[in-house]
Design goal:
3 helices; 83 residues; mainly alpha
Length: 83
Amino acid sequence: MSQLNIQLPDSLYKSLQTLAEQDGISMDQFITSAIAEKIAALTTEGYLQERANRGDRTKYEAVLAKVADVEPQPSDQLPFAQP
């Protein structure tokens, strides 16, 4: 495991301390979780972009064309609010 020393403004440190206490975890655990969440958010965007780049509009439309053009059964319809 690696160590990282950082300097935080007092207000940010106090917020970190309060939130970690509310979650019942140490500040180290809170920071580790926050970093993991940020990494997941940034890498997910790249993953989704890579998947989108592999997509093929022609193949998508060919599959979609196989779907029957019929009204859904009443049990499959979403209820809509009346205006």
